[in-house]
Amino acid sequence: MKSLVLLVLMILALALTSFSQSGRRKPPVTSPAPSPEATPSPTPKSQEPKAPQVTAEKNQDYGCTDDGTLAHLMDNPETVKAFQPKEVDTRAEILARPEPKYTEDARRVGVQGVVVLKVLLAVDGHIDRIRVVKRLPYGLTESAIRAACGVKFKPALKDGQAVPMWANMEYGFSLARSSIYGP
Which of 64, 75, 140, 182 is placed for a possible disulfide with 149 were both Cys, Cβ 3.0 to 4.6 Å? Predict the structure, then answer.
């Protein structure tokens, strides 16, 4: 009797495994389609070679460029005679000061703080050089430098003549004031 039950169970097990589907289907047999001729695809802008990014470091001088990149200045800044604000008769007057953009990386990581720059305001109304006094990571220092490059001002005066003057500029980055859609 035991052998009969065992035999029936074995037959049932064999029948179930042979008749049941595993859920997989055989892939349909298709004839191979002719492959299209290879045409060179345009390189996306994200893969085009870029100019190397300059990472702004503390106590280094940078210059403004026409294309928005940063130029690391290697010359000695002491060769340029510039005055401190207390040494001039009339300080330089800032007319326009653009706000820096909050970088996506800094926003994602949650970086907040202040970038402090020392800016040399030249007699011709342009920024001569920018020195990093206090920096922030994730591109915020570079963003502050680019914003400082857009500063418009009237030059300082000493004895009635326009003179170059150093000025400190602070750029604050706060997540509460930033927007995921804007600067």
Answer: 64
pLDDT in tens, 132-182: 999 999 999 999 999 999 999 999 999 999 999 999 999 999 888 766 545
Q: Where are the alpha helices (DSSP H) in 40-113?
A: 104-109
pLDDT in tens, 6-15: 777 778 766 6
- CATH number of the domain encompassing residue 105: 3.30.2420.10
The closest alpha carbon to 96, from 149, 21, 160, belongs to 149
- Residue found under tokens 């997989």: 24
Q: Which amino acid is at 8?
A: V
For residues 145-159, b (16+ Cβ closer than 10 Å) or e, as one string? bbbbbebebebbbee
**Distance in angstroms (rounded) separating the CA atoms of residues 121 and 168:** 10
Domain-embedded: residue 152: yes
Tell me the whole-structure pTM to 2 decimals.
0.65
Do 152 and 125 contact (CB within 8 A), yes or no?
Answer: yes
**How many domains is the chain built from?**
1
Structure tokens at 16: 């179930």
What residues does 23 pair with on adjacent strands? none
Give the tens place of pLDDT for each residue, 31-57. 665 655 555 555 554 444 444 455 777
Tell me the one-letter amino acid at 82.
A
